[in-house]
Amino acid sequence: MGKSLMIVDDSATMRKIIMRTVRMSGLEFDRTEEAGNGVEALEKLKGGVVDIILCDINMPEMCGTDLVKRVRQIPDCNGTKIIMVSTESSQELIDSVIADGANGFICKPFTPEKFQEKLSPFMN
Amino acid sequence: MIEQLGIKEIVLESAKEVFETMIFMDITETAEPDSDIEGWAILGLITFRGAMEGCLAICCSTPCAQTISMNMLGIDSAEQVSEADTCDAIGEVANMIVGRVKKHLAETVGNIEISIPSVVNGREIKNNLGNDAELVTAKVNIEDKYVAKLSMLYRKSSK
Ligand SMILES: [Mg+2]
Predict the structure, then answer these.
(1) How many inter-chain contacts (A to B, CB under 8 Å) are there?
(2) Domain ranges in chain B?
(3) CATH number at residue A67
(4) Cis amide bond preceding A109, omega within 30
(5) Mean pLDDT of the A47-75 span
(6) Which of B27-31, B93-97, B108-112, B117-121 is modeled with the greatest confidence?
(7) Are B39 and B133 in contact (CB under 8 A)?
(8) How far is Cα A82 from Cα A31, in angstroms, rounded to an integer?
(9) Is the pLDDT score of B5 beyond 80?
(10) CB-side exposure of A8: number of CA atoms within 13 Å?
(11) Which of chain B's residues have a Cβ under 8 Å away from the Cβ of A10?
(12) CA–CA separation, B26 vs B18, rounded Å?
């Protein structure tokens, strides 16, 4: 069965750019969802879990680091991989969000190669 | 001191990285007058606080902002990008530039926390961000077609 993807970012334009970059990286998803913040993402996950979440950090309502903690409390999302996609890239932040349950980190600005590198381990 | 860090160089280097990676355009510093920015312009602004406080902005003409958002989205015709897309794209450009600036500053000045972007779309936007702190500005030439103005206003935090 094909994989499903959710892109969480407060900028609609950035969501489109991420989607385009994912496509350029050659990775294919059967189902893609979008959410503008953590609250919206949790709401959409209730309607069906996804395999991979690409998650911004700085967002209104609920930021990405809080979303990671919340998703990790949902038993159905045990297998969901969360990759942070953020302009913030301090080692301290990366370490703390990985400790909270994220599975990877992509820094903005990004390239299709970066998505290929970080997502392909989770595509099998 | 902050002056010796070459804030302007950090801002330019960060902007170059963002333009090359995400917008597929080359930028070079220029001394050209910014008549291009007079009239309708778009300004993307991010504030920050922490070891340093202030704000960073990028200001350019509406056609320039449209081209930037078209390149970021991979769209060839200007009719296909909405005004909302264009504003959003400029906010994200400012956001990514300040993210790179933050990374550079982390090694020398310390950590800064950055805000969610604000975007102003209007006429004759004056980019004077205040006068009680250091202000660096740099004009950049984008692919010999447009001129954009980068500015960063900052002061070392008293905390
Ligand atoms: Mg954001």
Answers:
(1) 65
(2) 4-156
(3) 3.40.50.2300
(4) yes
(5) 94
(6) B93-97
(7) no
(8) 16
(9) no
(10) 31
(11) 116
(12) 10
Q: List, as ranges, residues with CB under 5 A of the ion ligand 1.
A: A 10, 56, 58
Structure-token pair, residue B67: 């081209």
Q: Work out the pLDDT band at A29, boundaries 50, 70, 90.
A: very high
Inter-residue contact A36 to A28 (CB < 8 Å): no
Closest Cβ–Cβ partner in B74, B88, B103 for A11:
B88
B7 reaches A (C-beta below 8 A)? no
From the CA of A10, how far away is ligand 1's center (Å)? 5
B21 vs A contacts (CB less than 8 Å): 109-111
Classified by CATH at the fold level, domain B4-156 comes out as Chemotaxis protein chec (3.40.1550)
Least confident of B16-20, B23-27, B127-131: B127-131
Q: Please tell me the predicted confidence (pLDDT) of residue B134.
A: 83
Q: Quick one: how far is CA B148 from the chain centroid?
A: 8
Sequence-separated (6 or more) residues with CB below 8 Å from residue B95 = A58, A87, A108, B44, B46, B114, B117
Give the residue from A9, A11, A13 with the most B CB atoms within 10 Å of its CB, the best one to mutate.
A13
Residue B129 has pLDDT above 80, yes or no: no
A9 Cα to the center of ligand 1, angstroms:
6
Extract the tokens encoding B138: 């740099």
CA B96 to centroid of ligand 1, rounded, Å: 10
For chain A, how many structural domains are there in total? 1
Residue B153 has a pLDDT of 86
pTM for this model (two decimals): 0.87
Can you give the residue range of the structural domain that contains A97? Answer: 4-122
Average pLDDT, chain B: 86
